[in-house]
């Protein structure tokens, strides 16, 4: 196979989960979709909300029988797996090239899943991530060094392309975590038994969904998860193995110090439940300089290869 | 090539266009992204809005030197080209299989392009399409037959899957048409000289962008466009040929009677400007029963083949 090709035999997409909703009592008004067509717009009627969008890429030469489903973190959608800010291919292509059938999920409210613009249906206002917040929370550099765009020493994230990176941000609702877990279960039903890879906020959504559907999630890769199972959910996990992957600079903020501690506690709870749980802090393995967005860092291909080998040794 | 494969050599995505915006003066508040992490959320800072998302699929065996860019209609995003409500492959796969490099665009505010949740930036409230509106406006059946789900006689749209179809709806802003044309130009710059296929509301956006960038749009396919060039823009079109494609039941509503008349007038203006402009009203060609969503109808593969042949004969 040409190394520049990804060798996709089939691709496509579907929607899963969510619910129908009826809107009534809103006034009809005359609008113009285009300069051509005045139109009586009736905002009432039947709609579908809270679905997930799932796009799949089936490799020409599969090496893993189980599909690999990828769930974005908070404030992002499936595009975070598709390209890096400096224009390289992302983990979607890297895992297809390793022979995984790859399913990219835009969960509730994100990207192509659409969202509900109906007053009161999602009670809170959406939030979206600024460049400043990404800079600090994703550990590109110290908060005080944002204006100068001076990243941490040895930083592997292509910080000079921060302006490109922030184009991937999409709004989110903090009230939708339970719905996100419900809808992820519906997406997993359509995907079938699989390996589930998550990033950041997606960790909480994925661990909770996996605990409810132990028949569907056979293994997990959690990239710097910011949330975990609820108490009592761990023993229900069907995954036979979980891999935790963390980048560098975890001491840089109180948030990441706390999240790392919580991650270790959760990993320990998996071990106690008899689940294989590997913990990769990349600096301890001699790999320094990775950010929270390690699937976009300059060694993203090498990391995808390592994670893929870990999975292929087990599944 | 296996007829069930799409033979994609490469796939990936990028963002294009839009602008940066600074938000200030909003109060900081404590939030929880997950159950794990209380967090000081600052809604102020630097953001990027009004970009387009572009996803590409490069066939293993290209037969056309020019990429084919596909622009969705109003209230939809790129997923409309990827699958049908009854679970068949869409036109994205059909055109890749014919050897076209396919670029699917989510333009401003739609799908993976994200949207701007900042008060006052887009002045109007978003609207979204109900099942009832889709039923009538997309000519699945008479408005009075929605409750009974009784489609027009001979209807080729899989109307029994209407509940699946409405999951593809995403919110839109009526005030963003100018921005959409600007951002489409930016996407076309990244794609390079191409063929541009549009649906419905995308027609107005695409014709206006094509008039501004005659160097980039070499040919056009307009599926039931609901808007066109502005007066004076036609002579600037660089496209050497345009194909207009219309389904059945155009007499069913005053809106479609009017849009068809406008389409004919616009086609005539192209002819006067020396541009080849073919007009396909499918019933006049013996193909009956197509809806406004003809890329999802039960003869979608046959229609994709016909349109592909029209393009390959010219480009």
From TrEMBL, chains A, B:
It comes from the Bacteria. PANTHER family: HYDROLASE ALPHA/BETA FOLD FAMILY (PTHR43194), PIMELOYL-[ACYL-CARRIER PROTEIN] METHYL ESTER ESTERASE (PTHR43194:SF5). This is AB hydrolase-1 domain-containing protein. It comes from Candidimonas nitroreducens.
